[in-house]
Amino acid sequence: MIELDERADGTRVDVQRGHPISLRLTENPTSGFRWRLDADGGPALTVVHDRFEPPARGASGAPGHHAWRFFAAAVGTAGVRLSYSRHGGAAARTLAFTVEVRA
After folding, report:
1. CA proximity to 73, closest of 8, 9, 15
2. Given CB 3.0 to 4.6 Å as the disulfide criterion, which of 48, 55, 78, 83 pairs with 99?
């Protein structure tokens, strides 16, 4: 499995069809900010998992992580874009990367 984080921004990732990719980004919903998946890479990629992982117990207000798992479903080039913002607000951060799914 290919594992990505904030350092994936602006990169290109090569993966074989049928393999998973995980993406894990720091998120603090208690501040009102959440990651939003603006472009999911379809049809080459399919999102199979999208959830927030809270911080350790007793860490009130601390950031957790937002985690996605993608499945390389079809040969092709996939663009993935995310934005970090408060509901309805302008993006405070963006992240984008390209995935090349090969046979």
Report:
1. 15
2. 78
Give the model's pLDDT for residue 55: 85
Measured CA to CA, the distance from residue 62 to residue 75 in angstroms comes to: 39
Give pLDDT, residue 56. 76
Residue 87 and residue 74: Cα distance in Å, rounded?
32
Spatial CB neighbours of 30, under 8 Å, sequence gap ≥ 6: 61
What type of residue is 96?
A
* Chosen CATH of 2-102 out of 2.60.40.2020, 2.60.120.260, 2.60.120.920, 3.40.50.1100: 2.60.40.2020
Q: Provide the 3-class DSSP secondary structure of residue 48.
A: strand
**Dihedrals φ, ψ of 45, to 5°?**
-115, 150
Torsion angle in degrees (nearest 10) through CA of 77, 10, 51, 29 = -150
